[in-house]
Design goal:
The complex is a heterodimer of chains A (469) and B (321). The longest helix of chain A is centred in the N-terminal third of the chain and has 38 residues. Chain A is an all-alpha fold and 469 residues long. Chain A is built from 17 helices and no strands. Chain A folds into two domains: 181 residues, no CATH class; 267 residues, no CATH class. With 321 residues, chain B is an alpha/beta fold. Chain B has a domain of 201 residues: Rossmann fold (3-Layer(aba) Sandwich). In chain B, 39% of the residues lie in helices and 7% in strands. Chain B is built from 13 helices and six strands. The longest helix of chain B has 30 residues. Chain B is globular and about 75 Å long. The chains are: A mainly alpha (469), B alpha/beta (321). Chains A and B meet through helix 8, helix 16 and helix 17 of A and helix 1, helix 8 and helix 9 of B.
């Protein structure tokens, strides 16, 4: 079920009313309702994969309980490896099987050896990367004795499958989200109003900005060889904003939606293009994933408590794996590697005084280099990416493809609106029209946003980009 | 909960009021548009009774000069000729345009790959302001998005993809063609081109799309039923020589069955190697459109049936897209 669909517009109010009807009567029934709703939400896409979701969750529930009880370190380790192994095998099979077999075959072919490894027609279960990571973190935290397992299976299943964040995050930690399933819930107008406003801005980002920009970006990136360097440059900058609004918008809808049920999800994006360094960028971009990788990969590898070369290796490895998490394609691996290199170079030059730029220039510089990396992320193949970069650098051309001028003009309008809002939020956080102290201003803002969404939104049912990850 | 419900109802109520008022304002702008697509689109298809109609994508709008068709001595003499343009959308939408019409001469501009691709319903979005209540076109509009039937209840949404084109004729009069151009959209200027670029060879034939073919067949059958004289024309593209494609082969096959003449310009070297005739690789500029229309009129001339000649001096012009 997509957030920007009529199905969801019908589903959400029904679940909302049922939830608040049972909220304070029976906690178990409330969690059961959330679980059933979440499975319906997921099964709406393809009910067959509910079994996979249930299997992964139940496994980690029982492994978590056994890990907590087990005193023998070796048995504990074995249990832990079983959980990690099964989860990663499921993820590996559904997401990476064809990628690895194809890469294997190509690598052999490069050395003149022909081997046969058949590709499989595998459907990628929506959100598998998200719920697998969420479920894994539960087992890891118990193994590390940072978390006490729950003995309520229903609550745990509801935690893993909680529909607002099931298919595209934020990837929540059990220590933050799971206890909320046991807390009493009190209906509050302020809380619901806040959630609805967050959702409204999320829809704006998705429908007005991301989907509008995608029309131009797709026209350029799906027809490489046909455009000038300027067009690639504009399309890449547009894509940078598109993916931010697509994913950031989804995350906001998820956060707002959870708020309607009295749940607090973590902030996932914090105006990432106002970053003056790459370290800052990754503290603002997909925060739930970057902290996941930091806690469960970078730090276990040694983090920065090791020699400099080893620290750089840890950084680079973390970003390469993060790239691979985004998709089974070498373009994502290169995207991750480029960001890993950015981090290393940034740390290397951090002490050089003459390289320090004024903040606005730093923002531009970081944005430009982020866009460079986005080329790999968006391009269909590595050769497309290199062609686009080569064209931008060597042959910008004299003309700019604008496609349908209406789409282009409204793309510019959408980006400008987003920039103005994010600028205010960044530098004048107290200035907020949606939560203004004057009720008429709040109402007018909501009305204008609704009118803007209906008038300039794109409603062709396009999917959120991050569903594929 | 009650407080929340009241506030939501208040917001929705106000939204509906603004939606209606906004829609009214936009309808007024549309109805008073000085020229261009919006002016053309005011035409109600049920009352379309012109004698010559050109149907096709944007190339039908740009490549055919209405005045030349009208003024050709001896060619369509005695006929009150007007040009009609269909919008660049799917075949099914085109076919629905034709219900209730009885035209005499129909020029179908078919792109060399017109019957091979998908139906591209999303391109019909800009028709929303005009046809959201049209009994035949509305089902096509409903295919542009999953919940179009619901979204179109908003009057503002009907203009969702069209604001730019609605306002444009007010800012730049004549940009989408003047009323006296009778549906022709003249495109001045000459395209940039690479003198060293070689002519693109014939592409690999892609299979026909059965849905597009069915819509096309339906449209042709309807015209023949109404005793129209139909011509198939494949316009030229700069730098591409397409003498044969799945669509062109299908046109020829239909021609063999029905006797409809086919004129294929997509491999004509007097066009495809002359960048000075184009405003972009797919559209002729004013000089190109005039040359093309003159030649086409001469080609069509021998086929015009005397029985088709019309004595009326009705000068109505269908200002289609």
């Amino acid at each position: 079920m997509l957030f920007n669909s009529l199905d969801f517009a019908i589903f959400l109010p029904i679940v909302f009313f049922l939830f608040w009807f049972v909220a304070n009567r029976n906690q178990r029934l409330r969690n059961l309702l959330l679980l059933a709703s979440s499975y319906l939400f997921y099964g709406w896409w393809d009910y067959r994969f509910l079994a996979l979701l249930a299997f992964s969750s139940v496994l980690d529930y029982f492994v978590g309980a056994a890990l907590y009880r087990e005193e023998n370190p070796q048995k504990k380790k074995l249990l832990f490896l079983v959980s990690m192994g099964v989860n990663l095998c499921l993820l590996g099979f559904f997401k990476y099987y064809n990628f690895f077999t194809d890469s294997f075959v190509n690598a052999f072919a490069f050395f003149g050896q022909q081997i046969q490894l058949g590709s499989l027609k595998i459907i990628l279960p929506v959100g598998i990367s998200f719920y697998t990571f969420q479920s894994m973190s539960y087992a890891i935290d118990i193994y590390r004795k940072k978390l006490t397992p729950t003995n309520d299976l229903i609550a745990f299943l509801a935690f893993v499958s909680f529909f607002p964040q099931l298919v595209a995050g934020p990837i929540e930690r059990a220590s933050h989200l799971l206890p909320q399933f046991f807390q009493p819930k009190h209906f509050s107008y302020q809380m619901i109003s806040k959630g609805l406003k967050i959702m409204l801005w999320g829809f704006f980002m998705k429908v007005v900005v991301a989907d509008r920009l995608s029309l131009y970006v797709d026209a350029v990136y799906n027809n490489v060889d046909m455009h000038t360097g300027w067009s690639y440059l504009v399309a890449t900058a547009f894509f940078a904003v598109q993916i931010y609004c697509d994913f950031g918008g989804y995350s906001l809808i998820a956060v707002g939606c959870a708020q309607l049920f009295g749940f607090d999800l973590m902030e996932n994006f914090r105006r990432p293009y106002f970053s003056a360094s790459f370290r800052e960028f990754w503290s603002r971009w997909h925060i739930s994933l970057s902290t996941w990788f930091k806690d469960y990969l970078y730090i276990p590898l040694g983090g920065n408590k090791v020699s400099k070369p080893r620290n750089y290796f840890n950084l680079f490895t973390t970003f390469v794996i993060s790239g691979l998490w985004h998709g089974a394609n070498w373009t994502f691996v290169i995207w991750g590697a480029v960001h890993g290199l950015y981090q290393i170079v940034e740390r290397e030059i951090a002490g050089i005084k003459w390289l320090k730029l004024p903040k606005p220039l730093n923002l531009l510089f970081v944005f430009a280099l982020t866009c460079f990396a986005w080329v790999f992320f968006r391009a269909a193949t590595l050769s497309d990416a290199t062609h686009i970069i080569a064209t931008i650098l060597t042959n910008p051309g004299a003309s700019l493809y604008t496609g349908d001028l209406g789409i282009f003009a409204f793309s510019i309008l959408a980006v400008s609106t987003l920039f103005a809002v994010d600028y205010c939020r960044e530098y004048y956080p107290d200035f907020t029209l949606l939560n203004h102290r004057v009720v008429y201003v709040r109402f007018a803002t909501i009305l204008i946003m609704l009118i803007y969404i209906v008038s300039f939104g794109v409603f062709d049912g396009s999917q959120f980009i991050y569903f594929q990850f | 909960m009650k407080h929340l419900g009241l506030k939501i109802l208040l917001v929705l109520g106000l939204f509906l009021v603004f939606d209606q008022l906004g829609g009214l304002l936009l309808d007024t702008l549309r109805d008073n548009s000085p020229d261009g697509r919006y002016h053309k689109a005011k035409y109600t298809l049920e009352h379309c009774d012109e004698d010559v109609v050109v149907i096709g994508s944007s190339r039908a709008e740009i490549n055919y000069v209405s005045q030349i068709i009208e003024d050709s001595p001896g060619c369509l003499a005695g006929m009150p000729v007007a040009a009609d343009r269909a919008c660049p959308i799917s075949g099914q939408c085109r076919r629905e345009f034709l219900r209730g019409t009885a035209r005499k001469v129909v020029i179908l501009n078919i792109d060399d790959n017109d019957l091979e691709g998908g139906m591209a319903y999303e391109h019909a979005g800009f028709l929303r302001p005009f046809y959201s209540t049209h009994p035949e076109i509305r089902p096509v509009l409903d295919k542009t998005s999953k919940f179009e039937w619901l979204l179109l209840k908003s009057r503002l949404y009907a203009y969702n993809s069209s604001f730019y084109y609605l306002i444009r004729p007010y800012l730049v009069p004549g940009l989408d063609g003047k009323a006296e151009d009778k549906g022709w959209k003249p495109r001045p200027g000459t395209m940039d081109y690479d003198p060293g670029k070689k002519l693109e060879s014939e592409p690999v034939k892609t299979p026909l799309n059965p849905e597009a073919v069915a819509a096309f067949d339906y449209m042709v059958d309807k015209f023949l039923e109404k005793d129209c004289q139909v011509f198939f024309v494949v316009s030229p593209n700069y730098g591409r020589s397409i003498g044969s494609s799945s669509a062109i082969e299908y046109l020829k096959k239909t021609s063999d069955k029905t006797g409809i003449p086919v004129f294929v310009y997509s491999a004509d070297s007097s066009y495809i190697t002359h960048p000075e005739l184009y405003v972009d690789p797919e559209h002729l500029n004013i000089d190109g459109a005039q040359k093309f229309t003159r030649e086409l009129v001469q080609q069509i001339k021998p086929y015009i049936q005397s029985s088709k000649q019309h004595s009326s001096n009705d000068e109505k012009v269908y200002k289609g897209f």
